[in-house]
Design brief:
This protein folds into 3 domains: 84 residues, no CATH class; 115 residues, 3-Layer(bba) Sandwich (FAD/NAD(P)-binding domain), CATH 3.50.50; 167 residues, Alpha-Beta Complex (Flavocytochrome C3, Chain A, domain 1). The protein is built from 14 helices and 16 strands. The chain is 31% helix and 18% strand. Helix 11 packs across helix 12. InterPro entries: FAD-dep_OxRdtase_2_FAD-bd, FAD-oxidoreductase_2, FAD/NAD-bd_sf, Succ_DH/fumarate_Rdtase_cat_sf.
Length: 495
């Protein structure tokens, strides 16, 4: 934050989190998080290939005391060619957040791609990126210019290759090895063989939570069928923790990180889920309506509050609707902006198109009169630059994810250029935020509050210290890295 001219203090950060969490604020966990966050960043930059930078984005609730710009920490882009063939093992980014399958770009360059002919610099960047991607496909089979989360994984992977650490993929943990109440290792299955792996210091659970577990997700999450979490996140870590003596605390106010989810059905029956967190629904020239053709929330709100509004309204299916300018300028979910083609999304009925709003309503089987009246009313608001119904575009967060070049309101624009497009959405989640109860050093606790010897849980396997609230970007990954750092220090006898 200092590097981008946005100073902060621990007291101000603590006050903001306290304001957001209210009665769910747990003093010891948040204090440990705030104390160790800057330490973790310095340690990672000094002892690994991971490099960070500050992003001048606002906190999600800028009306709360202590809120600030610049607390979002991003990973610097990474040249995956440094990993050679190992780069192929890094998970592809979500389609819709990359082009042509695996071509990525930094968040700050999205505007460059939207206006490639606006300047010599833009044209040079876009053309060189395309040329590099073509070469990458020939030599590596995928793009190697890694950004955002892929950049973090790539940098961590290079760091591991420089140590004596051995990575075993496709090796599930089956059960814990217990020695007089202490977790002394794990039984794992590798290539059909069960192996007993001894752990002298401890076992760290970091398996990504349970969003893909049919039993756990249906017990703890609303609308659990719709998730953008990886398929392997089936609650293995939580099961191992409970089998070792750990326990789940009382559920949080929210046990998941909410987002509208769209579905693309493939030709062989496969289904791909995409989370609509901010990049499309915050932009002008679109609205979200329920099954009756009525707006029900501020389309540009942060994803967690938007999820609350969706649940409160009882909406089980909704639609993002935009005109042709919206689609080609900003994209809709998996359908990327111009010049990326969208015909296959129309053929697979991911997108629905019609020459008029009324015909679009008929295709969607929603009330024709309602949708026409909703669009007409919204268009009037958009031309005035104010939304008295849901106050879209008034909050600083809304404006940050809108289009600053759109006047008078970066989030409001009329739907007036045919054809019109719609995309069905479902309330869902991106990740779970509920897990094993842990202490300030990420040690798993039993039902009496005592640490289970030798067992730690981090990331989505630990109960998130934000307790389901979401003060700002990174409130899942940030605690995951910070408490992973604290677990490492504790295992090494330095805490």
């Amino acid at each position: 934050m200092e590097a981008i001219g946005m100073p902060d203090t621990r007291q101000q950060s603590e006050e903001y989190i306290r304001q957001c969490l209210g009665g769910s604020y747990q003093e010891d966990l948040i204090s440990a998080y705030l104390d160790s966050s800057p330490e973790m960043v310095r340690w990672m930059e000094g002892n690994s290939e991971v490099k960070f930078f500050g992003l001048p984005f606002p906190d999600y609730h800028m009306d709360r005391k202590g809120a600030a710009y610049g607390r979002t920490v991003m990973t610097r882009p990474y040249d995956g060619r440094r990993l050679k063939r190992l780069v192929r093992q890094i998970r592809y980014p979500l389609q819709g957040m990359s082009a042509f399958g695996s071509m990525q770009t930094p968040l700050g360059e999205i505007g460059t791609w939207q206006k490639p002919w606006a300047s010599w610099r833009n044209m040079k960047f876009v053309s060189s990126s395309l040329l590099r991607y073509g070469a990458d496909l020939i030599f590596y089979g995928k793009g190697t210019d890694l950004c955002n989360g892929n950049a973090l994984v790539g940098r961590l992977l290079e760091s591991v290759t420089k140590t004596r650490i051995t990575l075993w993929s496709n090796t599930p943990a089956i059960e814990p090895i217990l020695d007089q109440g202490r977790v002394a290792g794990l039984v794992v299955r590798q290539e059909g063989r069960d192996l007993r792996i001894q752990a002298k210091k401890g076992v760290v659970l970091a398996t990504g939570g349970f969003a893909r577990s049919a039993s756990l997700s249906r017990k703890y999450l609303p609308f659990s069928d719709y998730t953008a979490a990886p398929r392997g996140n089936t609650g293995d870590g939580i099961g191992l923790g409970i089998a070792s003596g750990g326990h789940l605390p009382a559920p949080n106010k929210d046990n998941g990180l909410w987002a509208p989810i769209s579905e693309l059905h493939g030709p062989k029956g496969q289904v791909r889920h995409f989370p609509h967190q901010a990049l499309d629904r915050s932009k002008p020239r679109c609205i979200l309506v329920d099954g009756d053709g009525l707006r029900f929330a501020n389309e540009s709100a942060p994803y967690q509050p938007f999820g609350h509004d969706t649940h409160a309204a009882g909406v089980q299916k909704h639609f993002i609707i935009g005109d042709s300018v919206f689609l080609r300028r900003y994209g809709m979910g998996l359908a990327l902006p111009f010049p990326y083609p969208v015909s296959r999304y129309l053929m697979r009925h991911y997108l629905v198109s019609a020459p008029t709003i009324r015909e679009l309503a008929r295709k969607l089987r929603i009330n024709e009169e309602n949708l026409a009246a909703t669009v007409e009313k919204f268009n009037g608001y958009a031309r005035e630059g104010r939304d008295p119904d849901f106050h879209r575009g008034e909050a600083i967060y809304d404006q940050a994810y809108g289009d600053a070049s759109n006047k008078p309101n970066p989030c409001l624009g009329p739907l007036e250029k045919p054809p019109f497009y719609a995309l069905p959405l479902y309330p869902g989640n991106v990740s779970t935020m509920y897990g094993l109860e842990t202490n300030i050093n990420a040690q798993v606790l039993d039902g009496s509050g005592k640490a289970v010897p030798g067992l730690y849980a981090v990331g989505a396997d630990m109960n998130n210290p934000m307790k389901g609230f979401y003060p700002g970007g990174g409130c899942t990954l940030g605690p995951g890295m910070v408490f992973g750092y604290r677990a490492g220090l504790h295992i090494a006898g330095k805490l």
